Amino acid sequence: MSMPVHQAGNLEGADSAPMPNRRRTRRFNKAFFLNKLFKNYFLFSILTLCAVLALVIFFIGRTAILVFGDVSPAEFFFSLDWTPEEGRFGAALFILNTLSLTLLTLIMAVPISVGLAILMAEIAPKWMKKAIRPVLDLLVGIPSIVYGYLGLTVLLPFLRELSGEGLGDGLLAAAIVLTIMILPTISRISDDAIGAVPKKYREAAYALGSTRLQVIFRVVLPAAGRGIVAAVILGMTRAIGETMAVVMVIGNTPQLAKTLFTPSSVLTSNIVMQISNVEFDSAWNYALHMMAFLLLLISFALILVIRYLGRKGGAES
Amino acid sequence: MNRFSASRKQIRALRLDRIATACFYGLGALVLLLIFWLLFTILGKGLPGITLSFLTKLPEEIDPGGGIGPMLFNSFYVLILSLIISIPIGVGAGIYMAEYAPKNRFTEVLRICVESLSSVPSIVFGLLGLAIFAELLGIGLTILGGAVSLAFLNLPMLARVTEEAVRAVPDDLRNASYALGATKFEVIRSVVLPVAMDGIVTGICLVAGRAFGESAVIILTAGLSTSGEMWDFNLFSPGETLAVHLWYVNSEAIVEDARQIADKSAAVLVFVVLLINLLFRVPLWFNNRKLKR
């Protein structure tokens, strides 16, 4: 970029002195104009994102709030009885199921995926890292509906044989599918976060005589903590909001998941199974929107909690 | 004397280190095996039976032997429309957050907005699309509605990957460029973006792959049916995509070869996503070569 300007200045400098000066001002004006224009464009983009969020909250919230005209909040949040045909809308069981499914998924997914990230970023030699990353990308590439289909045709028969219980569908099947789904998300971003830790931190720790394990757990992981937290957030939001993979393996029965193999239903799966059968202005539709609004609130709340934890951890280290 | 106690501690630390290393390698091997097994299962079951006529034929309601032509076309159509809408805004937002955002309360609010938006479940975007396009505008379930809702879903993820990629660019490069008298935008365009392009393109890959296979949003906004014709560019016709078709075949279809259609559709879905990832990376290689020279 600087080359042509330099040459042009030389050529013009040969016959008239003020010429390059004027050109430069015009060039500068253009540069400053572009600078300002794009600054405003970038600001506009981020504000658009916020506007989309506002749209989501407004449109879902507007419909959701109407449910309390027909159903009392106490019934909606604390009743385990979901029989919309008879006007009983107790959503507590979906909320509890969603929470336990997410918890179960994270228990399985976080150690595996952070371990994988550590392997990629710290332990494996460079060629192996170069081989693992594209393979993880393959896993990201598989659409959620295909995971659901595989869960239905491969995992469920396997679990059926293993447990000898019913159809094999329920929390455990859903959690296994979700674990595989969010594994690449978490490990990939954790890997990036670990890779972004400055090399001098590691070298300082090695110089003090640490083994690699000590460097990883006492220096690298705390330093990359924020990034890893962000990774877990992304994975978690995917797990909470995942619909199609869950809907195919969880059984879709509105009851509380008391065991790992109880056919049950979570917020997302219940919405997608029922939303197309209801009319726009019925209490049923409002209740489903309220469940969607709850999903929103749950994920917002979780993000705030994890942000808080991340900030605290960052202050300590 | 101190050396003895210290060395015993060291031996323990070293042994722990070795065991942990082995464990990490074992974990990696297991996960890789699982991934290859998954891909082999999907592709191995479906790909052998795929013919050109399956990819281009119209689906059948009752007789066996139907194809997936319109759904495959719709998948690409919706994906491209949504990327056209979301990439300029998503990448711009990411650049703002990484380069411009000052350290203050306003930025903190913006950051919470982005994180909240990225946590919004896809089904909620489906409901939003349903509310805007079917209820408010009254145009029903359309390709346009599907593409816009899908773009909403892509936005926060694009912003996040762009921000991380831009942040990973070393400050030295920026400072060198500023020292040459470049404006902020010139620094971003000619230094930061080329260096961060690797990460940004990888991010767009992930987003495109996710969008191609997304089904929850499309079911609610573009519907469970097609217009019944191939090459239908009309934005206002219903747009069942391939991913939705896989769901439809599994839950509602009554054709006798539903299982084969599902197997093949799944294989095509995965194959196309892999292909998308490859295609998106081609410009990346060129860019890398240019940088190295």
From TrEMBL, chain A:
InterPro entries referenced in this protein's UniProt entry, alphabetically: MetI-like, MetI-like_sf, Phosphate_PstC, Phosphate_Transport_Permease
CDD domains noted in UniProt: TM_PBP2
Chain intervals for the UniProt region annotation (Disordered): 1-21
Domain ABC transmembrane type-1 span(s) in chain numbering: 95-306
Residue ranges crossing the lipid bilayer per the database entry: 41-69, 89-118, 138-159, 171-194, 215-236, 286-309
Record keywords: Cell membrane, Membrane, Phosphate transport, Transmembrane, Transmembrane helix, Transport
Pfam families the record matches: BPD_transp_1 (PF00528)
Membrane topology annotation: Multi-pass membrane protein
PROSITE patterns: ABC_TM1 (PS50928)
Primary location recorded for the protein, binned into one broad class: membrane
Localization: Cell membrane
Family in the record: Belongs to the binding-protein-dependent transport system permease family. CysTW subfamily.
Function: Part of the binding-protein-dependent transport system for phosphate; probably responsible for the translocation of the substrate across the membrane.
This protein's name: Phosphate transport system permease protein
Organism: Paenibacillus vini
TrEMBL record, chain B:
CDD domains referenced in this protein's UniProt entry, alphabetically: TM_PBP2 (cd06261)
Regions crossing the membrane: 21-43, 76-97, 109-133, 139-159, 266-286
Cell membrane as UniProt keyword: yes
Location relative to the cell: Cell membrane
Origin superkingdom: Bacteria
Ranges of residues in domain ABC transmembrane type-1: 72-280
Key word Cell membrane present: yes
InterPro entries: MetI-like (IPR000515), MetI-like_sf (IPR035906), Phosphate_PstA (IPR005672)
Membrane topology category: Multi-pass membrane protein
Keywords: Cell membrane, Membrane, Transmembrane, Transmembrane helix, Transport
Family the UniProt entry places it in: Belongs to the binding-protein-dependent transport system permease family. CysTW subfamily.
Name of this protein: Phosphate transport system permease protein PstA
Source organism of this protein record: Paenibacillus vini
